[in-house]
Write a structure and sequence with these properties.
Blueprint: H1 2-7, H2 24-83, H3 86-92, H4 96-101, H5 108-131, H6 135-178, H7 184-203, H8 212-236, H9 238-253, E1 259-262, E2 265-272, E3 276-280, E4 286-290, H10 291-296, E5 300-302
Antiparallel strand pairs: 1-2, 1-5, 2-3, 3-4
Helix pairs in contact: 2-5, 5-6, 6-7, 7-8, 8-9
């Protein structure tokens, strides 16, 4: 009786869901299915890598060969540029100094081979990426290389502008120094900036950069400079122009060594400048007098000849 009660199962309440009993075979099939999916995914990756491996090997070989070629070209160019003394040649032309002013520490014979080395490497990387089927990298480098002629053109324009601005500003500074202007260097620097900005407005469109605002700014600045120079020449430089013109006559009238009397003081002409004349006293001292005074005032003198 008791064994019968022990073997009797309590019936489930009415309406309750009874989960189906899972057999050991069903559980084993579940894990086998997961294992099979994992193995299929791994084999798929292995097959993809096996298919990619030949292209990868070709890309690596191309990179190694390209690196070797780039180094050989760099070393050969460095030796050639050093042998022909490219640095000295560019220094004589006034171009070598630009590298230092642009923050490039190495000379042209060392910098240019490095630049060519980098260009070759970029091309090699693009070819290797294309061989390996890495289209994103290949397309990106291709776009960079396609845009590089514009960059090179812009750089050349800026270099030419830098050289022209440097030459013109130096010439103007020397000319103004000969006139004895204390602010010659400042004016030369301002002129350098304007010339370089003009070339900058030509270079930026090569990079597809809008320059309408910059062009308008340059026009306004040039207009303001023209007005300022006109006022300065008409007002502030009137006396200066008087002395410059008088200096032409003073050089003709009073040669170096001529003894003259100025304000009851005897002195010898030591030199005639664009604006002033240097007079030396008998005791070795000297004083400076404006050129127009030697033309407008009554001067007594004795010729040096």
């Amino acid at each position: 009786m008791f064994s019968f009660l022990a073997q009797t199962e309590t019936p489930a309440p009415a309406g309750a869901d009874v989960p189906p009993a899972e057999s050991p075979e069903a559980a084993a099939g579940f894990f086998v299915d997961i294992y099979q999916r994992v193995m299929d995914a791994l084999m798929d990756k292995v097959n993809q890598f096996a298919a990619f491996l030949p292209d990868l090997i070709i890309a690596v070989v191309l990179l190694v060969i390209g690196l070797i070629v780039a180094k050989i070209v760099r070393n050969v160019l460095t030796k050639v540029f050093t042998k022909i003394k490219l640095d000295d040649l560019l220094d004589k032309l006034g171009i070598g100094q630009l590298f230092g002013k642009m923050g490039i520490q190495s000379g042209p014979s060392e910098f240019l081979p490095k630049l060519i080395y980098l260009v070759i490497l970029v091309v090699v990387i693009q070819v290797a990426a294309q061989a390996a089927g890495i289209e994103d990298v290949s397309e990106l480098i291709g776009k960079i290389l396609a845009f590089s002629p514009r960059v090179v053109t812009a750089i050349i324009i800026l270099l030419v502008g830098f050289i022209v601005a440097e030459l013109v500003s130096n010439a103007v500074e020397r000319a103004l120094d000969n006139f004895g202007l204390d602010y010659a260097r400042t004016l030369a620097k301002i002129l350098f900036g304007f010339i370089f900005i003009l070339f900058l407005t030509v270079a930026l469109p090569q990079l597809e950069i809008e320059t309408e605002l910059l062009n308008a700014t340059v026009k306004i600045m040039l207009g303001g400079l023209a007005v300022a120079l006109a006022l300065a020449l008409g007002l502030g430089l009137k006396a200066l122009a008087h002395d410059i013109v008088a200096g032409v006559y003073v050089r003709d009238l009073y040669k170096v060594g001529t003894e003259i009397e100025v304000d009851d003081e005897t002195a010898t002409v030591a030199g005639v400048g664009p604006i002033t004349t240097k007079l030396q006293r008998p005791d070795g001292g000297f004083f400076i007098i404006a050129n127009h005074l030697l033309v407008s005032d009554k001067i007594r003198g004795r010729s040096a000849e």
